[in-house]
């Protein structure tokens, strides 16, 4: 690990952080602590303040108020210059030089960052670009450029990674490989903060997340904690037999379910979390009338729309 850091301090700590641009409160009183080794998601509408928060955590934008520490070092403080080397950043729009090869790009960036030259090959391997290392970046596909951007963020073996929309332009296989890389980094103790608008992608892959709206953190926790805290209903799917559909309809009338919709013998309905077991018991009591039964948790998208609107 490079940079001067306090090994007992959280990876990221924010206290009362705000940023105003004239009358616009881009970030408004954010308190946040991210422990080491966590994969943390930051989501919100366009303009919610995510990029501004990122830029302040990287020391690229000065907060109007508040205190930001990365691995114990105050951002903008005297020891931050060396602590900055322990941070990797993948910006939303990666700027690359078309005439350089992938390897030349990383060597150039390693020099700027003060990272070891030998890191370059390892970073290319990590993102699956070893085969294309000597090809000019102008020949890279969108996804390859994005992966090269990720590789430059890995130079210097950072302990904290800020990844702004890291899967933009990646195909499903590359997205899967990207998150597998993150899991590998996590097992090495690396902390990762990710923004994404693709909520389904983050849902199963972050340990915790913050939902931002109008510069504030509106909700914070694991996806499951947010689902439970917001008391969003579960989605129930029932497949009834041809002869049993009427019995299911009758039973439904006295059950605490809402928004029941039938398509032939297939029913979808909403049910409060606390009503799940009584509802399931009542449906199971119908025996062969019920051919199949599924209960779905609300998605991160449901949580997001329940909170950020
Ligand atoms: N340099 C700037 N000057 C003036 N206003 C700014 C500046 N940077 C950001 N803002 C404003 O601050 C608010 C937050 O912007 P920010 O880019 O942080 O949002 P975001 O959540 O990252 O959005 P997106 O999802 O679109 O990337 C917006 O109202 C934006 O217009």
TrEMBL record:
GO terms assigned for molecular function: ATP binding; ATP hydrolysis activity
Superkingdom of the source species: Bacteria
Keywords, sorted A to Z: ATP-binding, Cell membrane, Membrane, Nucleotide-binding, Transport
Gene3D superfamilies: P-loop containing nucleotide triphosphate hydrolases
Pfam family membership, one: ABC_tran
Ranges for domain ABC transporter: 12-239
Keyword Transmembrane helix tagged: no
Keyword ATP-binding: yes
Record-stated family: Belongs to the ABC transporter superfamily.
The name this protein goes by in its record: ABC transporter ATP-binding protein
Organism of provenance: Ramlibacter lithotrophicus
Lineage: Bacteria, Pseudomonadati, Pseudomonadota, Betaproteobacteria, Burkholderiales
